[in-house]
Amino acid sequence: MQIGLVGLSSSGKTTIFKCLTGINQTLKKTGLDRGKAEIGVAKVEDPRLDELAKIYHPKKIVPAEITYFDIPISDPIASDQLAISSQHLNRLQLADAFVQVIRAFEDPSIPHPEGVVNPNRDIEIIRAELILFDLLILEKRSDKVKELLKSSKGAEREKIMKEQVFLEKLKKGLENEAPYMVKSLNSEETRFTSNYNLLAAKPIITVVNVDDGQLEDNIEIDLTKKHVQELTGQSCVVFNAKLEADLMQMSQTEQQEFRESLGLGYSCLHQLTKATLDIMDMCTFLTVGSDEVRAWLIKNNLSAVSAARKIHSDIERGFIRAEVIGYDDFMNHGSITAAKKQGLVRSEGKSYPVKDGDIINYLFNV
Questions:
Q1: CA-to-CA distance for 51 and 340, rounded, in angstroms?
Q2: Does domain 2-47+63-113+203-279 have CATH number 3.40.1280.10?
């Protein structure tokens, strides 16, 4: 799973990328190298792995991972765009979702590119750039469809004409900046859009980067949250990126003590990875043993045989059955053997929908 980070200059986007991935780049005052998209991996925090490791004492513990990439900002000298460098918009198409980082903090030493801090305006700037890029994609496809109509006949021509009508409908919606709701499309329209790979169709996570004084109840931040909810249908994540980056320099114990003393709650890593999993409708299943205790990310309710592919294609190909027990049931008994005696280890077939926290042992033959 790949998630792209976008944001205006001086929004704190690269600081958040560092907090997520632990990559400590050397930054210029103007930010990360504008010509390069940085890639890093975030480990998904999961206390269940540590508890299972106390039982199995494995050689290694392997948490689930999410890949994030930091999209460079545009060069204001070379482009009027502020949020996304034009040569990297194509890269953003490869993302499964993206995070938009919105600045809410005031700092005279870090001027805002628009002169004044205004979170709702910045959201609209990013949104406008994504829509413009999508309109260009649709325009190119429209030209292609017109060419195809010249030589098509029968059922194929009818299908192409339907797409032509849909393209005009979609372009009009984007031009009016109407919210783009994938859920409202029928199956045929969904097939069309899957070929276009529109940015407006991708899930979006909004991070509002605040200062210390804005972490408590704040009317302006509440208005931004409402604006995000109206535009995306999603809540947003709010934290102080600079403070989170400073906390990363401390030991885990020191971090915990500091958070408790300030009432900060979960880390930005925890908040943002959880938001990512929620918006992508993902869950985690677990495998255990003396070699490793490991978490695997999959779509919620994915079939047992499809989930097996995450481990190895041979397991999927030679699938016999899956021995499954829920994490809580396992921990209540302390071992697979004890759980089996209580009839808590189930034998499931290919179509079993895997649930979050399932501990699975696959039996296969190739």
A1: 20
A2: no
Tokens at 241, concatenated: 């990126």
Neighbours of 143 (CB within 10 A): 10
**At the topology level of CATH, where does 301-364 sit?**
Ubiquitin-like (UB roll) (3.10.20)
CATH of domain 129-200: 1.10.150
- Residue 233 pLDDT greater than 80, yes or no: no
Which residues share a beta bridge with 283?
Answer: 298
The tokens of 131 are what? 């829509």
Burial class of 99 by CB neighbour count within 10 A (0 to 12, 13 to 18, 19+) = buried
Cβ neighbours around 304 below 10 Å, total: 22
Tell me how far apart the alpha carbons of residues 198 and 93 are, in angstroms, rounded to a whole number.
7
Dump pLDDT digits (tens) for 254-280. 888 888 887 787 888 888 999 999 999
From the number of C-beta atoms within 10 Å of its C-beta (0-12, 13-18, 19+), residue 80 rates as: exposed
Q: Count of alpha carbons within 13 Å of 341, Cβ hemisphere only?
A: 6
- Rounded to 5 degrees, φ, ψ at 294 are -140, 145
